[in-house]
């Protein structure tokens, strides 16, 4: 019986982690070379693709001996921390990067620097790309790409860089498919990526899973939960969430987040929020409750109530046991298979006819 219970627990743990990380390709193409690179890339890897476009599409960056492009780059160099230094771009089609563990950036080189248009996107999304696994492909005519690599690392300093940047130039552009084929395995995405893990949220005897994003906060949270489940008391607030103190702090990577029903959010580093409505604020994302509609979320999260006991765990602490029969020695603890446990450690037990977590 013990071997059977252990096998079931292992299967549940494996299933809770069987969510593959996703890849996003972000690119800007002025002459069409980067567009062709992305087409070759898409043929070899499963990824979502997003193109970055300048707000002003009339500019000829190479005109007047590259005067316009040089002016844009010089403005960035003069004030790299000022958003107004970067040229405007169109709104992007994907604003929420939490589902993506891997990001491949494809950009042209402008006079030994990253194209100003791509610099704008990376500057605007640096916080969202923190802790992501990022790779870089640079297209140029003949110039080396060291300056572009430096720009990328300046713009997204908290990214995890995967392998060396791939340089595709005028001499080898026709061979780009083979170059990409040789380059992709060197990224080691499949080995070093962290699949999005799940936690389990138990309220009033009901348990639902939540899929975590991958950032410093969730990594620290997982390590905390490995030592045992955490129970917190949350209260309804604002007509859109339940929230309260975790009792400990987690690393923050705050950004303006448009929280939606089901989102699990870290607020001010030490408070957890679970949303049954919507709100926009500076938060750190933790994850999202799986598979519940807004009305189901309101019921599960006990929307409108106070002093809600919420247990957070890496394993599903509810079982298929419909009821627990009374046992002799009510103060004693029993395992879930009915064996008396005189020496208890961390785990789930039955005491006084109820399941408890130690």
Explained architecture:
- This protein has 358 residues and is of the alpha+beta class.
- Helix content is 26%, strand content 28%.
- The strands form 3 sheets. The protein has an 8-stranded antiparallel β-barrel. Strands 1, 2, 3, 4, 5, 6 and 7 form a 7-stranded mixed sheet that branches. Strands 17-18 form a two-stranded antiparallel sheet.
- The two termini are 22 Å apart.
- The N terminus is likely disordered.
Describe the largest sheet.
8 strands, antiparallel, barrel
Straight-line N-to-C gap: 22 Å
Content of β-strand: 25-35%
**Helix-strand pattern:** HEHEHEEHEHEEHHEEHEEEEEEHEEE
What kind of assembly state do the chains in view correspond to?
single chain
Topology (elements, then pairings):
Elements: H1 2-16, E1 22-27, H2 33-42, E2 48-51, H3 63-78, E3 100-110, E4 113-114, H4 116-124, E5 133-139, H5 146-155, E6 160-161, E7 166-168, H6 176-187, H7 189-192, E8 198-203, E9 206-212, H8 216-225, E10 230-237, E11 241-245, E12 255-259, E13 263-267, E14 271-275, E15 279-289, H9 294-300, E16 308-313, E17 348-351, E18 354-357
Parallel strand pairs: 1-2, 1-3, 3-5, 5-6, 5-7
Antiparallel strand pairs: 3-4, 8-9, 8-16, 9-15, 10-11, 10-16, 11-14, 12-15, 13-14, 13-15, 17-18
What's this, in brief?
The protein has 358 residues and is an alpha+beta fold. Helix content is 26%, strand content 28%.
Essential attributes:
358 residues; alpha+beta; 7-stranded mixed beta sheet; 9 helices
């Amino acid at each position: 019986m013990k071997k059977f219970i252990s096998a079931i627990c292992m299967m549940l743990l494996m299933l809770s982690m069987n969510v593959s990380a996703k890849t996003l390709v972000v690119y800007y193409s002025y002459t069409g070379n980067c567009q062709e690179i992305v087409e070759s890339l898409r043929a070899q890897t499963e990824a979502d693709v997003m193109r970055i476009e300048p707000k002003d599409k009339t500019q000829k960056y190479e005109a007047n001996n590259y005067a316009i492009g040089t002016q844009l780059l010089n403005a960035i160099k003069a004030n790299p921390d000022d958003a107004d230094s970067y040229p405007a771009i169109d709104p992007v089609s994907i604003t929420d990067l939490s589902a993506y563990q891997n990001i491949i950036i494809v950009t042209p080189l402008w006079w030994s620097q990253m194209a100003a248009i791509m610099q704008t996107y990376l500057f605007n999304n640096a916080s969202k790309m923190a802790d992501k696994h990022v790779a870089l492909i640079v297209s140029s005519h003949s110039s080396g790409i060291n300056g572009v690599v430096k720009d990328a690392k300046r713009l997204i300093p908290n990214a995890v860089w995967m392998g060396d940047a791939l340089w595709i130039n005028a001499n080898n552009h026709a061979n780009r498919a083979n170059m990409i084929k040789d380059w992709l395995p060197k990224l080691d995405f499949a080995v070093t990526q962290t699949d999005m893990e799940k936690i389990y949220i138990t309220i009033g005897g009901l348990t639902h899973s939540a899929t975590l994003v991958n950032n410093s906060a969730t990594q620290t949270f997982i390590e905390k939960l490995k030592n045992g489940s955490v129970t917190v008391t949350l209260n309804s607030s604002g007509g859109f969430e339940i929230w309260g103190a975790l009792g400990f702090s987690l690393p923050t990577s705050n950004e303006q987040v448009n929280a939606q029903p089901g989102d699990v959010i870290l607020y001010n580093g030490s408070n957890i929020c679970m949303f049954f409505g919507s709100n926009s604020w500076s938060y750190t994302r933790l994850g999202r409750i799986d598979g519940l509609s807004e009305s189901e979320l309101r019921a599960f999260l006990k929307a409108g109530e106070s002093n809600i006991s919420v247990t957070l765990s890496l394993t599903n602490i509810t079982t298929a046991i419909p009821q627990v029969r009374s046992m002799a020695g009510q103060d004693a603890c029993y395992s879930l298979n009915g064996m008396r446990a005189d020496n208890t450690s961390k785990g789930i037990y039955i005491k006084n006819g109820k399941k408890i977590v130690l």
